[in-house]
Automatic annotation (TrEMBL):
Keywords: Bacterial flagellum, Cell projection, Cilium, Flagellum. The keyword Nucleotide-binding does not apply. The basal body constitutes a major portion of the flagellar organelle and consists of four rings (L,P,S, and M) mounted on a central rod. The rod consists of about 26 subunits of FlgG in the distal portion, and FlgB, FlgC and FlgF are thought to build up the proximal portion of the rod with about 6 subunits each. Belongs to the flagella basal body rod proteins family. This is Flagellar basal-body rod protein FlgG. The lineage of its organism: Bacteria, Pseudomonadati, Acidobacteriota, Terriglobia, Terriglobales.
């Protein structure tokens, strides 16, 4: 009975963390480029009352008698499905149709990755994200430039004074990873490479690396399935209630055992 108390408590703790993950997904359902996370569970160690394979006689062996000791959260995985496109008509808003990440350089010099393409120009005309982190490769737009266009292959063109034909100002690149689900979320719509994700592989949009293409004037919405998240929330609540009932039942049984000596 004591074992049941701790086993059910582990289930309640795991479902509480599951609900925290679902709540974060729902809170970011309107965040540009957000990637929802899914919590993975695994069972804990087992108590062997009879070891599997133990000899019962010279001719037979036991199938074993094992009691599980609960569950625990193992990892949170980033779900990399495509989000819906939202048209903004802002020339510096970019959405990735397909795989890949934008690269931005943080103030400490490190490179971070993001699916959020809501970019702006800073006071020097350089394309940056809302935190002021510079888009890599750097592209600077002259203040007199007009008709800014970014092709689906990442070529940045603009018309300059005294010129009839557009001039190429830069070439955008995207990054991909062997395991995008292993990236680390560091806040502000940014992700960092880890040993689990592997090193970034760079390439032009729509190139031979299998990277997606760019859509100018669009933003990619969060890929959170709100309806699915509510279903997962209900399931987490029911699993939490079931584990709490196990604790209540074990407590009642323990109470009856204590009353037997009176």
């Amino acid at each position: 009975m004591i074992r049941a108390l701790y086993t059910a408590a582990s289930g309640m703790s795991a479902q509480q963390l599951n609900l925290d993950t679902i709540a974060n997904n729902l809170a970011n359902s309107s965040t540009v480029g957000f990637r929802q996370r899914a919590l993975q569970f695994q069972d804990m160690i087992y108590q062997n009352l009879v070891t599997p394979g133990a000899a019962q006689s010279q001719q037979t062996v036991s199938a074993g008698l094992q009691i599980g000791l609960g569950t625990k959260s193992a990892a949170t995985e980033i779900i990399m499905t495509q989000g819906d496109m939202n048209q903004t008509n802002n020339p510096y808003d970019l959405a990735i149709q397909g795989s890949g990440f934008f690269q931005v350089q943080r103030p400490d010099g490190t490179i971070a990755y993001t699916r959020a393409g809501n970019f702006f120009l800073n006071d020097q005309g350089t394309i940056v994200d809302p935190q002021g982190d510079q888009l890599i490769p750097a592209v600077t737009i002259p203040p007199t430039a007009t008709a800014i266009t970014i092709t689906q292959y990442g070529v940045v063109n603009a018309t300059l004074p005294g010129q009839q034909n557009p001039q190429q100002l830069g070439q955008l690149q995207l990054a991909t990873f062997a395991n995008p689900g292993g990236l680390e979320s560091i806040g502000s719509n940014l992700l960092a490479a880890t040993l689990s994700s592997g090193d970034a592989v760079l390439g032009n949009p729509g190139g031979n690396e299998g990277l997606g293409t760019l859509q100018q004037g669009y933003l990619e919405n969060s890929n959170v399935d709100v309806v699915g998240a509510f279903v997962q929330m209900v399931l987490a609540q029911r699993a939490y209630e079931s584990n709490s009932k196990v604790i209540r039942a074990a407590d009642d049984m323990y109470s009856q055992v204590n009353n037997m000596v009176r």
